[in-house]
Write a structure and sequence with these properties.
Largest sheet: 5 strands, parallel
Shape: globular
Number of domains: 3
Radius of gyration: 23 Å
Structural class: alpha/beta
Order of helices and strands: HHHEHEHEEHEHEEEHHEHHHHHHH
Strand content: 5-15%
Oligomer: single chain
Strand order of the largest sheet: 2-5-8-1-9
CATH class of the largest domain: Alpha Beta
CATH topology of the largest domain: Rossmann fold
Number of strands: 9
CATH superfamily of the largest domain: P-loop containing nucleotide triphosphate hydrolases
Length: 359
């Protein structure tokens, strides 16, 4: 079995699978009024694939604990929804759920946003400010894009995770908090640790219960459910009537690899509902990124032809990239696949990518 068939389950290119989806859409292409079997019992989470079910099983297991959770996955896969699901099913559900996007807040302001400050702590601090950490006391703190947190701030976060204590900027008074930390990232933290871009002790404190959110291309059976869910949602918001989606349109959407994942699908369906007048809901192929539409990497073909199997294929790419997975010169780029997909395969096959750094 080659790398391509394993890493993406080869469902997008399986004629029997596509025919089954198209046939199912053809039998009843109407948009149902109710949520039907598309809903999972978790707010906003739609799907019935095995990959998603495995994630939700982990959510159920970890929700009843106070253990730190690290959500991993590509951008747009729904990590924030999973974080909300963990909080909503925990005993902290009636307490605050506070989100901090570590990439969206300038590094100079992130410390004060997280920990707060006292009056006079710095120029412009004319009043006392309670940080988001204190606001989340007794509840959950969601640290999105944790891989973007500055190195100089990481020791304070490590102390929080270890001791559950901190000080506001400009204060010598230590405060205690009872907070459950959920972190998320699309970055390769292990590689960042090797490159001294992320503290190893902080990584191990965060990585207590890792949950990897599968990209949409690895759960294609959920695409028709998501399409109908978003079509119904936007039609209701815009006071429009969308009766059906043609099997042809649905087949195109199932075959597309969705590099932007669920967020991209949501945007495409919203656009189609905006311009929808009557008849079946349609999606123009010009809206989809052509370079991703059934793109086959010539490098991948070369590696597959030269290697005996998937493990050798990955090893050959890692050796050429000297163990680097991400970036334009990384193994993932050579293979023409997203870094998170390659990382998933590396972990599942117990490949030590670091041995290739000196190869």
């Amino acid at each position: 079995m080659n790398l391509e068939s394993v890493m993406d389950h080869d469902l997008r290119n399986d004629p029997r699978f596509l025919a089954g989806l198209a046939s199912n859409c053809g039998k009843d292409p109407r948009i149902p009024e109710g949520d039907g079997h598309a809903q999972t019992g978790y707010a906003g989470i739609v799907g019935q694939s095995r990959a998603l079910s495995e994630v939700l099983e982990l959510v159920d297991l970890v929700a009843g604990t106070d253990s730190t959770v690290l959500l991993r996955g590509e951008t747009g896969t729904g990590k924030e929804l999973i974080a909300h699901a963990i909080h909503d099913r925990s005993r902290r559900r009636s307490k605050p759920f506070i989100k901090v996007n570590c990439a969206a807040i300038p590094s100079g302001l992130l410390e004060s946003e997280l920990f707060g400050y006292e009056r006079g702590a710095f120029t412009g601090a004319i009043t006392q400010k309670v940080g988001r950490l204190e606001l989340s006391d007794q509840g959950s703190l969601f640290l999105d894009e944790i891989g973007d947190i500055p190195l100089e701030l990481q020791p304070k976060l490590l102390r929080l995770l270890q001791e559950r204590e901190f000080e506001r900027l400009g204060s010598t008074q230590t405060k205690q908090v009872n907070v459950r930390v959920i972190a998320a990232t699309h970055r390769d933290l292990e590689e960042m640790v090797m490159c001294n871009e992320f503290r190893s002790d902080l990584y191990y404190r965060l990585n207590v219960v890792p949950i990897t959110i599968p990209p949409l291309r690895e759960r294609p059976e959920d695409i028709p459910l998501l399409v109908r869910h978003f079509a119904r949602q936007f039609a209701r918001q815009m006071n429009k009537t969308v009766e059906a989606i043609s099997p042809e349109t649905m087949e195109v959407l199932v075959q597309y690899p969705w590099p932007g994942n669920i967020r991209e699908l949501q945007n495409i369906i919203e656009r189609s509902v905006v311009i929808h007048a009557r008849g079946n809901l349609t999606v123009k192929k010009s809206w989809l990124c052509h370079e991703h539409f059934f793109s086959k990497s010539s490098a991948l073909s070369t590696f597959v032809a030269a290697a005996a199997g998937e493990r050798d294929t990955i090893g050959a790419a890692l050796s050429r990239a000297r163990g680097k997975v991400s970036g334009p010169t990384g193994a993932a780029a050579m293979l023409g696949i997203p870094p998170s997909t390659l990382e998933s395969r590396i972990r599942s096959m117990n490949i030590n990518k670091y041995q290739f750094k000196t190869a």
